[in-house]
Amino acid sequence: MLELCKKVLLKVSFDRLLFRKELSKAIRWVSKEELILLKNWCMEQFGPRYRELILLSFKPAQA
């Protein structure tokens, strides 16, 4: 599931709204173990562009 989420996020990364929507879905779909991997990958890939959005999206999932 993690690899599918990565592919989708790469494809929608041109649009902030789509990216946020798909990131929220990905966070719900991946397992707890994959959640950390997804966050790290997102920060590496999209950190310069969407850093705040990524951090806010992962905040509820890690609580």
List keywords for this structure.
63 residues; mainly alpha
What does this structure look like?
The chain has 63 residues and is mainly α. The protein has one domain (2-62). Helix content is 83%, strand content 0%. It contains three helices and no strands. The chain has helices at residues 2-12, 16-29, 32-58. Helix 2 (16-29) runs antiparallel to helix 3 (32-58). The longest helix is centred in the C-terminal third of the chain and has 27 residues, at 32-58.
Helical residues, percent: over 70%
Nearest-angstrom radius of gyration? 10 Å
Strand content: under 5%
Largest sheet: none
Please tally the helical runs, counting DSSP H or I stretches of 4 or more residues.
3
Could you list the spans in which at least 5 consecutive residues all have pLDDT below 50? none
Indicate how many domains the architecture comprises: 1
Output mean pLDDT.
95
Number of strands: 0
* Helix/strand order: HHH
Structural class, please?
mainly alpha
What is the overall shape? globular
- For the terminal residues, how far apart are their CA atoms? 22 Å
Q: Layout of helices and strands, plus pairs?
A:
Blueprint (H helix, E strand, L loop, with lengths): L1 H11 L3 H14 L2 H27 L5
Helix pairs in contact: 1-2, 2-3
Offer a quick outline of the entry:
83% of the residues lie in helices and 0% in strands. The protein has 63 residues and is mostly helical.
